[in-house]
Amino acid sequence: MGFPERLKELRLKKGLTQKEVAEEFGIKQPNYQQWESGKRRPSSETLEKFANFFGVTMDYLAGNDEDLDNVELLFRMNSKGLTEEEREIFKKELIEFMEERKKAFGK
Question: Which domain holds residue 12?
Fold first, then answer.
């Protein structure tokens, strides 16, 4: 699920219309609609405001999954040059971190 879908999903979960969210942020409804339809993308500053408003992380709102499926990719990207023992420790710590993060954000 990408940013536009997440934005819409979070808005609907709060029971808000596009117009209500736009008014909350002091923007025009057509501008908000373009973000939700994927025609435009907000600035990182606006993305952060949306994340705070909806009570989620910027990563989640941006469409990045925060689950253990990404552990293997993160592990491969960050474990080059480590010994086998270091790789095992790193992988274990990465899994623990992702599980704690998931609990903290209720996912």
Answer: 3-61
Residues 6+ apart with CB under 8 A from 54: 10, 11, 14, 61
Angle at 68 between CA 52 and CA 106, to 5 degrees: 40
Same domain as 87, residue 41 = no
Whole-model pTM above 0.90? no
For residue 43 the two structure tokens come to 């600035």
Nearest by Cα to 104 from 66, 63, 51: 66
Query: 42-59 in b/e burial notation, b at 16+ Cβ within 10 A?
Result: beeeebeebbebbebbee
| CATH at residue 14 | 1.10.260.40
Q: How many residues does the chain have?
A: 107
Over residues 43-95, the pLDDT tens digits come to: 888 888 998 898 887 777 877 655 545 555 566 656 677 788 887 887 788 77
